[in-house]
Amino acid sequence: MNNTNRAVNRTILLILGLVLVAIGGGIVTSAVWPAAAETWTNIGSGAEGWAQQAWDATVIAGTGLTWVAVAALAALLVLVVLLIMLVVRSIHGRRRTPLRASGAESDLGRVTVTEGFASDALKNALGERDEILSARVTANDIKHEPVLHISVTPRQNTSPVQVAETVERLVANLGVLTGQKLTAYISVHAGLRAKLAHDQRRLS
Amino acid sequence: MSSPVLRRVVRRETHSPRTVAMIVAVVLVILALVYVGVEIVLNLLGQPALLLGPAASLAWVVGLPTEVPAGASIAIGAVIAVLGVVLVLLAITPGRLSKQHLMLGDSAVVADNGVIASALAQRISDDSGLPRDQVRVGVGHRVVDVTVSPAVGVPLDEARVRSVVDSELESYRLAARKRTSVRVERPRDQEERA
């Protein structure tokens, strides 16, 4: 779970898609419909003439450069930098905030629970259970509220209800211990690990 | 599970963020823009173009309907339009991941379809006494497909299998309603059909 802005992702895909549909549609229409081909050619040669004129009119004296080319390059550069920033930002969309739950204050002082403690406590408790192959605990900040994410891979054929109940009980216990009600998100995965492990519990 | 925070988490975990598609599309656009820039710079420096100089490529685009054979330009246009349609579809379809939201207790619980399918299959196998590998379960967003293939001569109560599937699914309290279909495959039927 990260904070990637998904609306931005979809908007960009939509804009690019519509542009491509317009270009492709234009090419196909101009190939099959003579009137469209004529419009295409007229607009095209107009643009060509304008570009040639602008190119010649803005030649920087004493060099082979023209302002049109410089402006086009600058615009390209700005666009490329913006797009690169967009990609970099979405790669770094993951933002983890440490959980710092401060519990009840007593005569002895205040109890503060950090993500590391909650994570270790839950992981150790889950590690003792045979039907759970692996567990990972992280804390995320969603809408300014800490949410524990417990991701577990149980043995194949284990009921997800049973797994969820186990994890929920452990989270509730941890909440009692730290004097704070924790918000938890539990994800149950079927991974390669679950496929390779024995599906039946070992009897001991 | 009713807080807006957990609802947001579940929504984000069960739907694709479309980040990969966005990055691929944007990187391709960046490459195209860089290529255009390189051609302009080469032209300014008086160097030969990599493929086509700015003026020549503009002329090619203008001549597309008249000078390029109709078949070729239709093909080019169609490929571009199809790519565009794919991007539009990626943008507007929900992009559900193969996970299910289970409405249990106070926490938000999401399980992979595979977890639900294998648990269901185990439950059917326990109840009917069939070996686990004779029960196959597929879980989709709207349907649960159960196929049991008992050995020849082994009796099987289909209605009972169906009720086990329904009660087990009921206990998972899935957020999305599912249509269940139970199919019994007899090896003898297959022989007769063959």
Write the layout of secondary structure elements.
The complex is a heterodimer of chains A (204) and B (194).
Chain A: H1 6-32, H2 34-57, H3 67-91, E1 100-106, E2 109-114, H4 115-127, E3 132-142, E4 145-154, H5 160-178, E5 184-188, H6 192-196
Parallel strand pairs in A: 4-5
Antiparallel strand pairs in A: 1-2, 3-4
Chain B: H1 4-14, H2 19-44, H3 54-62, H4 64-67, H5 70-92, E1 99-102, E2 108-112, H6 113-128, E3 135-139, E4 143-148, H7 158-172, E5 179-184, H8 187-193
Parallel strand pairs in B: 4-5
Antiparallel strand pairs in B: 1-2, 3-4
Helix pairs in contact in B: 6-7
Question: Any key phrases for this structure?
Answer:
heterodimer, A: two-stranded antiparallel ribbon, 19% strand, B: 194 residues, GMP Synthetase, Chain A, domain 3, 2 domains, three-stranded mixed sheet, two-stranded antiparallel sheet, 13% strand
Written overview of the protein:
The complex is a heterodimer of chains A (204) and B (194). Chain A is an alpha+beta fold. Chain A folds into 2 domains: 6-91, no CATH class; 100-196, GMP Synthetase, Chain A, domain 3 (2-Layer Sandwich), CATH 3.30.300. In chain A, 55% of the residues lie in helices and 19% in strands. Chain A has 6 helices and 5 strands; from the N terminus they run αααββαββαβα. Chain A has helices at 6-32, 34-57, 67-91, 115-127, 160-178, 192-196; strands at 100-106, 109-114, 132-142, 145-154, 184-188. The relative contact order of chain B is 0.10. By secondary structure, chain B is α+β, with helices and mostly antiparallel strands. Helices cover 57% and strands 13% of the residues of chain B. A 3-stranded mixed sheet of chain B has the order 3-4-5, with helices on one face. Classes of the chains: A alpha+beta (204), B alpha+beta (194).
